[in-house]
Amino acid sequence: VNYSEKLLMNLTEKIIITDTNVITDLFNADLLEMFSLLNNVYILDIIKESEINSKTCNMELINKIKVIHATSNQILEMQKLAKENKKLSPQDLINYVIAKDNNYILATGDNRLKIFSEKNGVEVLRTLKIIKLMNSNNIINKEKAIEACLLLRNNPYTRIPLIEIDNTIEEIKKLATAV
Fold first, then answer.
1. What is the pLDDT of residue 159?
2. How many CB atoms lie within 10 A of CB 84?
């Protein structure tokens, strides 16, 4: 069973659309390469072309992620939503629209987008949940999952609350001892 099949088993075969927050987090956690190799991970062309550069992470890794495109109707819907939701960026909203229209899971580190998406019926994954799923599906072992969390914890630019990272580390340790 390859990486994708293992993650798909737990993600009900939906496709993940990522935003730059998750990409940066996974890069800082040294997991982006494994994540980019999964067959069910996509990035929106607009995001890839306008938001990601060599400061975000290693572009070779980004180029391994498959690209998905928005339709003109999806762009129109995003523009309509942008008028009603001033606190969400057009990039956030187009990712939301594509996830909603295609029944995809939205992987985001943005809390406003998470709340908006879940309120409107779109399933959301955050960075720490991705790490836990990669561990529980044996894509990474317990040590690598904990190391990834510690890399995030020790990164001065991490937006993830330290208590959430600490709780995730404890959860991974408990799961490993329960087996």
1. 87
2. 8
